[in-house]
């Protein structure tokens, strides 16, 4: 068994240190505890992202622990291998500073040298507390807005939760996390589409909900935007399908192109060309607030846990957190970071670990931030 452990340690080391390029063949040779196409795809993506030129990797003497550095962010990568010589886990742990306030959180994000915007909403106010000079791309945070409008249409009797849609080929988007060509011809309900969109960030589910919502959906989105923006702010009056936005960014869907599209979507910066979703965070927060306070939403989803939605694309990281507490009304907080170079996997994990640290410390509720960048 020991020789098996040494062999897999060497395989992982070769892939991480650039002695071998991650490929389907190299991943297939690694014995996994959870041996399925899904887990092999996840391992391939992880090793592909760690193989980035922006991440410098050094190994310990036993090849079990690796030191990572990406720009200003340091991290550790730990391999967990069973006694039977099977890979159980690869874990990236960035070094996150102490975060006890929103100011600490802002300081942590500033290490990434990106444009930053942070907004907070509570019963008393809805404001941007850290501003960007230009509108920022928010990636999958758009799905929070889509969900809030669909829930509103259900409340008004324009849609029903159990309403069914027959999936056709044109419904399948690129980079879809749930629905695929295998689902063509099957029926799916609005409730199932909401679950797929919010918890799996499924692009096809979002596109279908936009289609089902029809012109009433787009008209209400335009009303939301007009109520919150000045005349000088330039934004799209419609939410376009992900297939249209991301297809223009990284390529049209085909079975042969799926892998290439996924790799391009991890490296090619396209938000600078307007190929993303540009929605002010105050509108995203308002959508989230109305969503989690809706009786329909409460009946569908488990509110015993915090509501979290993240988004990412090359050069874009975004997230929204609405903490759940039966006794204390905690604010909804969202943020977006944009820059003209890709965020590495190490940097992305660093950001979300910083978010977790912020919300683990309740002192942030009474902290003040007066920073504009």
In short:
With 373 residues, this protein is of the alpha+beta class.
Task: Tag the structure with descriptive keywords.
373 residues, alpha+beta, Nuclear Transport Factor 2, Chain: A, Beta-lactamase, 5-stranded antiparallel beta sheet, 4-stranded antiparallel beta sheet, disordered C terminus, Beta-lactam/transpept-like, Beta-lactam_class-A, beta-lactamase activity
Textual characterization of the structure:
Residues 128-238 form the Beta-lactamase class A catalytic domain. With 373 residues, the chain is an alpha+beta fold. The protein has twelve helices and eleven strands. The radius of gyration is 22 Å and the shape is globular. The model is unreliable at 366-373 (pLDDT under 50).
Element layout with pairings:
Elements: H1 2-16, H2 24-28, H3 37-50, E1 55-59, E2 65-70, E3 73-81, E4 87-94, H4 102-110, E5 115-121, E6 126-130, H5 142-155, E7 164-166, E8 187-189, H6 190-200, H7 203-228, H8 242-250, H9 258-264, H10 281-292, H11 295-300, E9 307-313, E10 316-322, E11 332-338, H12 345-360
Antiparallel strand pairs: 1-2, 2-3, 3-4, 5-6, 5-11, 7-8, 9-10, 10-11
Overall 3D geometry? globular
CATH fold type of the largest domain:
Beta-lactamase
Alpha-beta classification: alpha+beta
Largest sheet: 5 strands, antiparallel
Walk across the major sheet and give the strand order: 6-5-11-10-9
Q: What is the gyration radius calculated from CA atoms?
A: 22 Å
Total separate domains = 2
Uncertain segments of ≥5 residues (pLDDT<50)?
366-373
The CATH class label of the largest domain is Alpha Beta
Q: From N to C, what is the helix and strand string?
A: HHHEEEEHEEHEEHHHHHHEEEH
Classified in CATH, the superfamily of the largest domain is DD-peptidase/beta-lactamase superfamily
Total of DSSP H or I helical runs spanning 4+ residues: 12
| Helix content estimate | 25-40%
Share in β-strands = 15-25%
How many DSSP E strands? 11
CATH architecture of the largest domain: 3-Layer(aba) Sandwich
- Mean pLDDT comes to 85
**How far is the N terminus from the C terminus?**
55 Å
């Amino acid at each position: 068994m020991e020789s098996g452990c040494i062999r897999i340690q060497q395989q992982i080391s070769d892939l991480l240190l650039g002695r071998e390029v991650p490929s389907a063949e190299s991943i297939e040779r690694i014995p996994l505890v959870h041996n399925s196409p899904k887990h092999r795809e996840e391992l391939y993506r992880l090793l592909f992202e760690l193989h980035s030129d922006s991440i410098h990797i050094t190994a310990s003497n036993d090849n079990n622990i690796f030191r990572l550095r990406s720009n200003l962010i340091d991290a550790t990568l730990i391999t967990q291998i069973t006694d039977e010589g099977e890979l159980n886990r690869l874990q990236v742990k960035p070094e996150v500073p102490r975060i006890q306030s929103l100011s600490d959180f802002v300081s942590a994000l500033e290490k990434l040298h990106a444009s930053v915007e942070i907004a907070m909403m509570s019963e008393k106010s809805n404001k941007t507390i850290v501003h960007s000079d230009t509108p920022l791309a928010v990636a999958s945070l758009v799905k929070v807005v889509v969900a809030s409008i669909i829930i509103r249409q259900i409340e008004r009797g324009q849609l029903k939760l159990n309403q069914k849609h027959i999936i056709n080929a044109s419904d399948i988007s690129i980079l879809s996390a749930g629905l695929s060509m295998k689902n063509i011809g099957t029926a799916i309900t609005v409730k199932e589409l909401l679950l797929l969109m919010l918890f799996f960030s499924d692009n096809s589910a979002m596109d279908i909900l936009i289609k089902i919502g029809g012109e009433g959906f787009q008209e209400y989105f335009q009303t939301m935007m007009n109520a919150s923006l000045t005349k000088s702010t330039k934004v799209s009056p419609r939410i376009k399908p992900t297939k249209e936005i991301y297809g223009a960014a990284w390529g049209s869907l085909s079975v042969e192109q799926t892998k290439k599209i996924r790799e391009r979507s991890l490296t090619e910066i396209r938000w600078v060309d307007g190929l993303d979703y540009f929605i002010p965070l105050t509108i995203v927060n308002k959508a989230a607030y109305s969503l989690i306070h809706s009786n329909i939403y409460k009946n569908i989803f488990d509110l015993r846990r915090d509501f979290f939605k993240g988004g990412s694309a090359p050069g874009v990281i975004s997230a929204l957190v609405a903490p759940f507490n039966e006794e204390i009304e905690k604010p909804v907080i969202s943020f977006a970071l944009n820059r003209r170079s890709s965020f590495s996997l190490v940097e992305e994990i660093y950001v979300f670990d910083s978010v977790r640290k912020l919300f683990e410390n309740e002192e942030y509720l009474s902290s003040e931030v007066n920073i504009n960048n």
